[in-house]
Amino acid sequence: MIVTFTPHGAGWRVAFRYNPQLVELLKSTVPGHSRTWDAARKAWTVDETWAPALVDALKAYGHTVSGYSTGSSYTPPPRQTSKGEWAAAVFVRVGPERVPAVYRALSRCLHPDAGGDTQIQQELNSAHDAAKKGQQR
Question: pTM of the predicted model, to two decimals?
Answer without folding.
Answer: 0.54
